[in-house]
Amino acid sequence: MSDKHILVVGSGSVGKRHARNLSALGCRISCMDPRADRLKEMAEEVALVGRFQMESEAYAASSYDGVVIASPPHVHVSQSIQALDAGYPVLLEKPVCPGFADALRLKEAADRIGVPLLMGYTWRWWPPLADVRGLLNDQAIGTILHVQFHMSAHLADWHPWERYQDFFMSHRELGGGALLDESHWIDLMLWLFGMPSQVSGRIDKISDLEIDSDDNVDLIFTFEGGPRVTMHLDLYGRPHEKFIRFVGSEGTLLWSADPNQLAVARTMNAEWDKTPYTCERNDMFVAVAKEFLATLDGKQVATCQLNDGLNVLKVIEAARLASRDGRTVAIEG
After folding, report:
1. What residue ranges in 174-318 does DSSP mark as E strands?
2. Same domain? 129 vs 237
3. Are 137 and 310 in contact (CB under 8 A)?
4. Which residues sit opposite 5 in a β-bridge?
5. Are 129 and 263 in the same domain?
6. Whole domain around residue 210: which residue ranges?
7. For residue 23, what is the domain's CATH number?
8. Which of 54, 131, 267, 309 matches a 20 to 30 Å C-alpha distance to 38?
């Protein structure tokens, strides 16, 4: 158990989750959010040491052991730099921010200050995907030839307690949209295979959702000496689906979120060897919280660093250019 004092910046869904988990691990929690109603909701779930509507108030009122940035992406960089400048390690929710150039400002600050920053691409802490990585490293299905990433989930189902039109995901200027918010899948691709050499595809808004952000992403990635990767992300699909299919020279490996399992097939028939898992979604957030607390005690950031987040944005920038110009774009390593 920890007795650390953590400031959570942002009290939306993910901010509440981080606050609950860190509190359960023994931390004292304070929160900053410009919305008084959300601060009130947070206080009903977690005993707060302090609650503030302005960052200046939060930093003037107390000292902290660490800061969690769980606000909309368009303010990630400024809020992270403020925390780092104050000397506090940061757990930064994904993505780093909407654009690569702004992310470089954060990297410069982080390198200059030398305070730890842990990126919250949480699927890296999901036990089935850790097992996938091990199976791929062991060439359990031979040489990987093609990989299909698929995420489909109707936006109105994400936060049933609020209008989806009010959710930051609906607004491009706040950092919403399928490509940026669901960049988990780009991060997983990089975690498993490294940086691709090229990307082509389309990023669009094609549904009747009342949003001005993108709701449909279809990308093709090429890897030098590696697999061909296709990726589909959408914000309009029902039922919700999350899966990754790996097709190798000696069989197919399928990871799915629902059912929570890995499955391997090596014959022409649908004869799947299935491994079910009992882990729950919050488990990976708890694992992130534990690693963050370890960094406060001097451990090195291990699972997901700021550079990992910058690499995701580098791929996103190339994908945006490819979609805009209708061409294949090279990605710098």
Report:
1. 198-204, 216-222, 228-234, 241-248, 251-256, 261-265, 273-276
2. yes
3. no
4. 28
5. yes
6. 124-277+313-330
7. 3.40.50.720
8. 309
Cβ–Cβ < 8 Å for 101, 40: no
Determine phi and psi for 243, rounding to 5 degrees: -155, 160
Whether residues 201 and 325 share a domain: the answer is yes
Residue pointed to by tokens 């953590």: 6
Question: In the structure encoding, which two tokens stand for residue 26, read together?
Answer: 């023994």
Tokens of 40: 């009130």
Which pair of tokens denotes residue 322?
A: 């490819």
Distance of CA 15 to the CA centre of its chain: 13
| Closest alpha carbon to 276 in 294, 256, 291 | 256
Do 114 and 223 lie in a common domain?
A: no
